[in-house]
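Pasting as-is:
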Amino acid sequence: MSWTKRELIEQGFNEIGLAGYIFDLSPEQLQTALRQLDSMMAMWASKGIQLGYPVPVHPNDSQLDQDSFVPLTANEAVYLNIGVRIAPGFGKAAPQETRALAKMAYDTLLIQAATPRERQMPETMPRGAGQKPWRTIDNPFVSPPDENPLVAESNGQLTFIGD
């Protein structure tokens, strides 16, 4: 199960030295941080970083105790970056280490989002110089992609039809 939005925000406050167990965070402060979290996640989604975060249509539609659906591998990037974002509003400067870690974590998410998806080459693509005619039965082009390499059997099992 993923963290709630409240847990991400509280961890962000903790990163800038405003931990909830020492400082009492008012509901207004939490709502302000929630709006910043929502806008940050919407901006990330527009850049191709799809984490499953439920971005609300209206700022008042978001709930603090709602599940964030952010995978555990991305939690650190989210709470470090929200900590850096909310720090100036509370008269704090985010520590240099926190800013550096937030940038590294964000860059990692960008790299994962930028990984090209695998796909089959079209049948109009030439095979290249390494493909000799006797290996391909005189066809200089890539074999057409298999439309359906998976077949569902009547018992519900999937069978892969491949080489």
